[in-house]
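@here heads up, posting the sequence + SMILES for the flavin-adenine dinucleotide run so it's all in one place. Ping me if the SMILES looks off, I pulled it from an old spreadsheet.
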Amino acid sequence: MLWDYIFVGGGLSASVVSSRLHHLDPALKILVIEAGGNANNDPSVVYPNSTNLIGGEYDWKYQTIPQVNLDNRQVDLPCGKALGGGTVINSGGWIRGDKFDFDLWGDTVGDHRWSYAGLLPYMKLTETAPAPVKNPDEHGTDGPMLIQSIESTHREFPLRNKTLESWQEVGVHPLPNNDGNAGNPLGIGDLFENKNQGRREIADNVFKLTGITVLTETLVSKVLLSTPKSHNQAPEATGVQLANGTKIQGKEIILAAGAIRTAQLLMLSGIGPSDELHKFKIPVVLNQPEVGKNFADHGLFGALWALKDPSAGYAIGSANPLFNEPQYGYGTPADFLVSTGITDKAGLAAAIEKDEGKKPDPKKHPLLKQDRTFNEHVFQYAGTPDGSAVTFALINLLPTSKGSVTLKSANINDVPNIDPNYHATEVDKFVAREGIRLQIAFANSNRTVIGRDIIAGELGAPGFNETFTTASTDAYIDARIAAGLGSTFHPMGTAAMGKVVDTNLKVKGINKLRVVDTSVFPVVITAHLQVATYATAYQAADIIYNSLKCSTK
Ligand SMILES: Cc1cc2nc3c(=O)[nH]c(=O)nc-3n(C[C@H](O)[C@H](O)[C@H](O)COP(=O)(O)OP(=O)(O)OC[C@H]3O[C@@H](n4cnc5c(N)ncnc54)[C@H](O)[C@@H]3O)c2cc1C
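bot reply: prediction finished. Complex structure tokens:
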């Protein structure tokens, strides 16, 4: 059998691209090969309050190498291992991000299909936004992915108004229509989730794989590449080899194994930095130094804040009967996603100067010339099982540190070295500190109603004998972050567009091989990655189909 398309990995991106290709031409012979199983009907992941997510059977349970800027800790980096990939275990935050990033992406690669305007049609095609849709120019109303909001699920958290008021008291204001998913997330937006009344929407349940041949529990070990007959020809992908040695032939191979495994598979196939390949005696088909580089992930820091009066029933776990109603289990117990830039521009400029060795020009530097989305704050009405505390999550959305994925061996069964290189830059440390200071001002100062009336204080962390207060020093905040920062589970950038793949997602220098997953993001997307990944994959299907049509004309 010669397949028209073989997908390596059956995660989010592969589900969308293969499903769309089948829709566009049902005669295509498409094979999807997924290392994990099929969780689509597993109640332990599909229904609310699942405990079978991170750390469960559908998680690869990766760990980073020791992070030198985080007390040499190895950080857990879960990734989905099942049809649907990350969507089987993810948190369901439906967060579009900042128009600026997509425009930067389009400019960086010189192709405006990847700008915000280029991707917006696909973002809209993917979703059915929760009714009432206040700005239809920005939102889809009949896409396959159903989006829920706090309003559409009839959750009325007791602290909503005070939370809203407190954000404004520290200078953060609601976005028009409270919509952070309309290209400008800087401000207060309502939390959106891709859940249907709490039910998980797994990518391949939404973009159905009917008509597509699917192999689960099957690990691909490399791409098979032909040796070119002459010097001016490029090597060509002809199939894949499974970990058990079986070879499967295809006319075109699409790597969609996620930012960690796609980079590994490229290298195991002989496409990567030649010095890295030589270390493991892998024959070099293409010296491509950028494979595995440009790796970024968003750091996540959580802190627990004790309530002054736990009996008031503000948090899940308390005796408040409201929380026994089923809708309170439908999603993250938070009203808002709050995205912020940096107000202390002089401090940011000083951090940039330390990293780059020269004073940045505020009119030209990409981090200074306009407001960027640096931090996200999620004030969650849950913290401890007894409902006596709430959680403040800080997500550093615009890391300037770059990490890498490198090989540990020539064996696909060995997880590669995963190095997000968190907080390697002064900018990242400065931005995280600013985020924590804003959260302290919100939760623990006289400036806000939450600080005055609701929260008693921060609960601290093991090994520290002080807690976050308005008097916390930079050194203390840095130490807490080094001890506690984790991953937001958003690996990206390891086969960056413009460097490793071209704007048609073809691996440069190799014929018949593409990459479609978060590896291709050439710039950091300042959002949780689902929305950008769905849109990228949706557009990729059109690009692949159009190139097929052109080649058969
Ligand atoms: C715990 C968690 C929480 C998250 N929360 C959110 C959130 O709230 N909002 C949001 O927007 N994003 C979230 N994300 C991120 C989002 O789910 C991912 O960015 C997205 O799934 C990436 O899509 P992808 O197609 O690049 O890769 P994936 O969806 O990861 O798919 C890759 C697939 O390839 C398979 N594979 C890998 N190697 C091989 C191989 N050698 N052979 C065969 N198959 C292979 C994997 O098993 C996997 O199924 C979260 C992710 C995780 C893990």
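MO: The chain has two domains: 2-45+53-92+207-295+491-522+529-552, 160-190+299-398+423-484.
MO: One more: The first helix runs from residue 12 to 24.
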